[in-house]
Amino acid sequence: MDASQSKHGWTQLSDGYLSKTPIFQFIVVSLIFPLWGCAASLNDILITQFKTVFSLNDASTAFVQSAFYGGYFLIAIPASLVIKKNTYKFAIMTGLIFYIIGCALFFPASRVATYSMFLVAIFAIAVGLSFLETSCDTYSSMLGPKKYSTIRLNISQTLVPLGDIAGILLGKYLIFGKVGNLADKMAGMHGAERVAYGERMLQMTLRPYKYILIVLVVMLIILAVTPMPRSKATNKEAEKAVEEQPKLGESIHYLLTNGRFMKGVGAQFVYAGMQTTVWSFTIRLALNLMNISDSAASSFMVWSYIAWFVGKLVANSFMGRFSSTGVLTWFSACGIITLVITFTVPNATAVYAAIATSFFFGPEWPTIYSHTLDTITEKKYTETGGALIVMSLIGGAIIPLIQGLVSDATGSMQFSFIVPAICFAVITAYFWSEHHIDAKAGALK
């Protein structure tokens, strides 16, 4: 036992888990989760704003998500190396600093008023979020006994929808404001008048990021002064516990040859893309099928995140009595049905079905994450394993782009929802296969 840790009331075990969960530290880490939800949901507002101001097609608007999730993909491995060489706390603080820098870049971006400059700011935020997710997802699962790792991560992840709701409300009232339907307002504008009005609208994107900056600075200070566990696997064979730090190549080779781990990474790729594309295009779907303003359409995203939050609670209650993979197989199958309704019913019912789909997202992301992490039997590879799972968020950059291309090619935003429907079928197959593997191994409740 590390003496510096024992005085705080927890004992670190050789596999990196703790003898008990340090409640205050767990709360601090969990409060970081809604911060990336807020940034992600603001992207859905920015997509609608940028499409009109910069006269973009659906495929081009998807580059907002490409910049966002591309940052996750590129930085996850470097973030894991930072965790290996330092601590989870250091990596989280690094992520908060990059997040702060990205938000600050919105100020010059609104002055320059070019799409590429905004993408740079979004990418910088994504760099910070990649550090945060690579560290916080794994760290939350490690902050206590191993048998409760999935429960801890699900508790932390349950706060993400609250951040999503906050982001949409900030966008609804601070970016859209009382403008009405921006596309209709700018339709009759040309030349200098259109440019000037567009620049004025871009200035409104600054408003939510001012408040986010304040929250980030406060969280950075709290984390800096809070003692945190290391939660690193140690070599129990040694006379003195020594943290194991295998080389990156060794870690990658182990993980790439772990079939169930890689299947989980693939499932997370598809899930991230599916979730992102449904949320990215729900506002656009509402605008296409209903005669409403941008601000009113953004309300549908608030209901989507509420549905997601409730779905997490319902699924978690079922998962307390039945196997997680079995419960989420049924959730995923129901999600396929709601998405089929979304791309086939030519009226407002399709929008409500898209909202209902969020209910069936439930706790799928954290469950896939922790379930995949559990397939790593050699815990010294945990940090790199967590990074590879976070890298799978690149699906959030690729699959929305595919949906945008389908929408442009077919001329139907609604029909393009066939893309996430296919994704949900893949996720259903993943949970079904994992359920059967767990049943054979006797790992089910």
Automatic annotation (TrEMBL):
InterPro entries: Lfuc_symporter_FucP, MFS, MFS_trans_sf, MFS_TsgA-like
Entry coiled-coil feature ranges: none
Main localization category: membrane
Membrane topology field: Multi-pass membrane protein
Subcellular location: Cell inner membrane
One annotated Gene Ontology cellular component of this protein: plasma membrane
Transmembrane segments: 21-42, 62-83, 90-107, 113-132, 209-226, 269-290, 296-315, 327-345, 381-402, 414-432
GO terms of molecular function: fucose:proton symporter activity
SUPFAM superfamilies: MFS general substrate transporter (SSF103473)
Keyword Cell membrane: yes
Keywords annotated in UniProt: Cell membrane, Membrane, Transmembrane, Transmembrane helix
Signal peptide residue numbers: none
Alphabetized NCBIfam families for the sequence: fucP (TIGR00885)
Protein name, entry field: L-fucose:H+ symporter permease
Organism from which the protein derives: Secundilactobacillus folii
